[in-house]
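Encode chain A's predicted structure.
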Amino acid sequence: MAPPPRSSPRARAGSRPSRSSGGNQAGGGSGAPAQPPPAAAPAPAPVASSAKAGKNPARSAPVLAAATLDQVRAHLVRMKGFDNEGVTARLAGDNMKARERQALAKDVLEEIDKLIEPPLRWQEEAETEGRARPAEYVEQAKVYGEVMARAEMVRMGGGK
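Encoded structure for chain A:
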């Protein structure tokens, strides 16, 4: 009994150059290197996240305006600034200034929490239960993830 062929004739035909074409298929025998295809233009950044599918929510989502998310982003920038100033002061040996800046960063974090507390509670409930979420809430999850990453740095830096 003969062993089965390792690959089909169709797969082998595409892997070897044809002997009748002179071996250089891309350049046509001129010896010039083949030009790479032109690079595709980068895709535009998405404006907002898309909604997440799931079961219908038991209660409707609280209103979460784009302006609220913009405020959260602005507070995040302020919090990062205070945190960076605190780290710089600590590295320079000025612990009092570092603690002051870290405390300011912690105050901004508390402002963020107060700003989005009702939508955040609804979102946590919806995620836990596998409920459908509007696009604004998907975007809020991304922004709040950034806030929490920075909040951990603030707390570790002394902003208790």
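Residues 86 and 101 are 5 Å apart (CA to CA).
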